[in-house]
Amino acid sequence: MKLLPLCLVFFLSPLIANDWPQGAGRDGDFATDQSAPTSWSVVRDENIRWKITLPETGQSTPVVNRGRVYISTLKPVNEDSELGKNIIAWAIDAETGEVLWKREIEGIHNLRLTGCFSDSSSPPAVCDGENVIFTNASGGVVCFDRDGKEIWKRDLFTVGRTLPFLSDGKFVFTRQIYPPEADGNFPHTYADSPKEMWTQLQALDAATGEDVWVSDCGVNMGCVILPQALSDGRKVAVAGRGGGHGPPEKPDGISLVDLSDGSTIWTLPLEDFMATMSFRIRGDRVHMFHFGEHFTVNAFDGKIEKRISIVDQVSVFRKGRAAALEDIDPSKKKRMITQGSNLLVGPWHYFRSYTRPWLGRVNVDSGAVEYLELPLQLSRTESGEDKLLWFTEPRERKDPGLHQQVIVENRMKNSRGFVVFGDKRSKGSGWGHIASPAPSVAGHCLYVPVMNGTVYVIRWDVDQLDYGNAVVAINDLGPAGIAWTRASLSFADGRAYAHTMRELICIGKLLK
Q1: C-alpha 276: how far from chain center
Q2: Does pTM top 0.85 for this prediction?
Q3: Percent of the chain, pLDDT > 70?
Q4: Is 342:326 a contact under the CB 8 Å cutoff?
Q5: Is a pLDDT exceeding 70 seen at residue 15?
Q6: What is the rounded distance in angstroms from the CA atom of residue 500 to the CA atom of residue 502?
Q7: Which helix (H) or strand (E) holds 256?
Q8: Which pairs count as long-range contacts for 343-348, CB under 8 Å and 24+ apart, including other chains?
Q9: What's the rounded Cα separation, in Å, for the pair 237 and 239?
Q10: Quick one: which of 61, 108, 115 has its CA closest to 224?
Q11: Distance from CA of residue 497 to its chain's centroid?
Q12: In sequence order, which residues have a C-beta less than 8 Å from that of residue 48 and are 6 or more positions away?
């Protein structure tokens, strides 16, 4: 991985090199150099170190710091439910799975439970080596010490898809102002609201919880904000605006934010932009998607340097066929990638297609575009039978589409048998109109989780993105229908950690 500036080394000195102390990993790039298990099965208890059954669902990516795993779940309900606002913060021993402590964090606004875009439990925790900060997307940010003692608390409303991170002693997150409706959904009525109602980045002092800054520019509630660094040493983040539900932030497009004070360095307006993705900087260039194109933007002045089509004459490797050049019908969509599914790894910008069960990548240096068809879902039995479901093109409008084609529909029940969801789309395949867990990297492998509990392990640096060379393994996070997840996989000490609606799972060598 890249070397850290000396100031970051000093600040992060209590952290362990192999830890995953925040949702996007130590360096905010969803990656670690260490290797991790590539093949496992929760159904067959293969290569599973430990797992614990959770009383209620949760969506947060596990974070790991100094031998502890931190996750958030919703507060347990005692009947079938669609809405909730309180969460439970968990501290768990990374070696054994023993629960060390739990703390309730009360929320302000009800949100839909187990939504396919987010819910109250979605934001991952952030660790600074001594303390851990939890965020309730229904409203509430709380800092605890390692023993679970409250250090500070703020009643702040955040977005469900915020990925909080640390930057030079500041806790940075995406702040929300306008509330959801009574049904937990966000209305379309705020499109023309003034700046005072904008969603923005906010920074708190990680030690005290006091305000440090609020960004000058607005941020779309579905934009994945990640910490970046320019070659001149400046700490920055790329903020995007534009998306569904009539967001008020203007103008549509992206801005570069200075993480020292929240000021805007530059803004690139993009008409009808869909900002629901992550943005990474490589070689002082911002890499992103807009409609059916991939953009490369100069990170110093915000000027577009390169545009590559991801729909015209691209290489597609379909099941049972050799790779061939195809034109992809954009189907009048404003986006061609699944929300939140993209990740820049080396020169390759990976993403999941919005309209097909395809993993795509763009070589940002050469401009080559490749797609690999993947099965929609894996279903396993304890006896050893594997079933892979491949996509069937609908012949009529009434036929099941991408999101409706499943082996087993997600049952949306917690481990105690209560139905806990407020969005019918959560029953679907995890492909199409959902917010994907971000893929993550351990060593040479890209781990791509799908909402239905299937995890694809891909060799990210292969020369050709084909089934034989690129696909290392296809794994399960539990039986089809109950392995639902919206969490990325995280890695520490050569193990992988996964959080499903029913379990927290440690994948790696078995305990002796």
Answers
A1: 11
A2: yes
A3: 96
A4: no
A5: no
A6: 5
A7: strand 253-258
A8: 343/30, 343/278, 343/280, 343/438, 343/439, 343/440, 343/441, 343/446, 344/29, 344/280, 344/282, 344/287, 345/31, 345/441, 345/446, 345/460, 345/461, 346/460, 346/461, 347/282, 348/460, 348/461
A9: 6
A10: 61
A11: 14
A12: 40, 41, 42, 505, 506, 507, 510
The total number of residues shown for the chain amounts to 512
CA dihedral 422, 423, 428, 431 (to 10 degrees): -130
Q: What are the pLDDT digits (tens) for 299-316?
A: 999 999 999 999 999 999
Strand positions, DSSP E, 21-107: 31-32, 48-53, 63-65, 68-74, 83-84, 87-93, 99-105
Q: How far apart are CA 474 and CA 176, in angstroms?
A: 37
Q: pLDDT tens across 477-490, in order? A: 999 999 999 999 99
The whole-angstrom separation of Cα 329 and Cα 109 is 40
User: What whole-number distance in Å separates Cα of residue 209 and Cα of residue 228?
Assistant: 23
Which tokens go with 165? 């991170």
Name the nearest CA neighbour of 202 among 215, 218, 193, 192.
215
Rounded Cα–Cα distance for residues 83 and 95 (Å): 34
The per-residue pLDDT of the chain, averaged, comes to 94
Q: Are 244 and 176 spatial neighbours (Cβ–Cβ below 8 Å)? A: no
Neighbour tally for 375: CB within 10 Å: 18
Q: What six digits make up the tokens of 458? A: 């891909």
Q: How many CB atoms lie within 10 A of CB 30?
A: 29
